[in-house]
Amino acid sequence: MDTSPAPLLLLALGFCCPGIYGQKLEMKVRSPKDIGQLRVGQRLELECHTDRSHGASWIRQDSSGTLHFIAFINSMSRLTFEGGQRTSTRFEASKDSTIYRLAVTSFTPRDQGSYFCVMNLNQMLHFSPGQRAFLPATTVLAPSTPGPTTQGGTTEGDSCLETPDPDSRMQEDLDSFCLVFLWLPSAGLCLLLLQLLATTIVLHQLKVAPTPSRCTSGLKPQPCP
User: Could you tell me which of 162, 76, 60, 181 has the C-alpha nearest to residue 114?
Assistant: First the structure.
């Protein structure tokens, strides 16, 4: 993952909040005209249309589900790229009223993934739909022994193949963030409160328990007057 711990930490915490998808953010591709035919070295331009000018971030989710912070554009159009830098050799970002733009100046294989525009409104993060940007797959056929086929011409092995769903992988990442940053500290606090409550009950019982009193005279106990 790119070295941008502070923005990614804020994103992780925001993922655990309710109302993430409440704000409508619309993603559009300015260039190329056919994003399914991206080429190495080509310029990729994306637009995020909103109804607010509070500032927005751009992030990318790679094919493994890892999130990468790209840039933040504040309400005054000031830019912050990964690593806290003010400029980037790989990306350009800008703001025009309520439209936020991102450009990958020269697309490379490491720029592949799903791009998201994110806004923080009322302490909740709102995400645009993801825009996929991948280079065309190059298929290389290797000689192999044909396996048993079923009716319809597909192999038995093919029927069990499943393509990983990036959305489900992202949800798993968000669930793990919630577990670390919210549920584990809450569980620890609950255990501490239970221990304090048990200690208070025991001390109260010891304080109010009756203490038997007997009067003694010499060596033989005598009843109290």
Answer: 60
The 3-state DSSP class for residue 43 equals coil
φ, ψ of residue 222 in degrees (nearest 5) = -120, 145
Q: Give the whole-angstrom CA distance, residue 40 versus residue 107.
A: 5
The predicted-structure confidence for 15-48, as pLDDT tens digits, reads as follows 444 344 445 788 899 888 889 889 999 999 999 9
Q: From residue 171, how far is each of 163, 174, 177, 200 by CA, in Å?
A: 16, 5, 10, 42
Could you tell me the pTM of the whole model?
0.56
Element (H, E) at 222: strand 220-222
Q: Tens digits of per-residue pLDDT, 48-77? A: 999 888 899 999 999 999 999 999 999 999
One-letter amino acid at 91 equals F
Q: Give the chain's end-to-end CA distance (angstroms, integer).
A: 84
- DSSP, residue by residue, 43-99: -EEEEEE-S--SEEEEEEE-TTS-EEEEEEEETT--EEEGGG-S--SSEEEEEETTE
DSSP summary character for residue 17: S
Is 15 buried (19+), middle (13-18) or exposed (0-12) by CB count in 10 A? buried
